[in-house]
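One example copied in:
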Amino acid sequence: MVEPAIRVKIAKAFINTVRVTEPNLLKQLVYKTASDTADLKTYAIQVVENDWLPLWRQKHFNDSMLQVIGFPAFRLLWRQTMLRLVDGPTLKPLFDGAITLFGRTPQALTKIVPRIWSLALRDVGQVKLENSVSSNQACLKLENVPIAVDDGFIEGVAGCFEAFYDLCDADGKVEIASQKASTHQIVYLLNW
């Protein structure tokens, strides 16, 4: 059975964002989580040697980071990571194509989220773009989300979606509108 996983390129981009924007944070992580040092070393080895990183392994790294910086800063780091990824060879063509076809709005960029999801994650459910009630709103629904998805993952995804505002020179907020463990569903509302 294949387990839920994140593409290693995404994990590396996140580590690089942390390294560039918060240079001392990785040192703090190792110091703060000395008891988990072996786990962090295993994480680093898997990031170097594999194409996919099990989601539970990313969760351990996220949890360690959340203990040090909290949710708002964590979300911001994922927002910055997404901006870096959009400049890379995998996502740049998708974003450029979406802007050409649909315009430079956060709503236009949400149309490519299902494709990005399948490139970045494996067996972590599906994303559907729901009909919006306003031209200044988009609703993204994650369905069949595995138990391995935790609050850090959910906040990190919200941060990635917030990068859409930067890409479109828009002000806005991503709200986690609903999170239902019983139905394995998470709903994000993007308002601008």
The two ends are 41 Å apart (CA to CA).
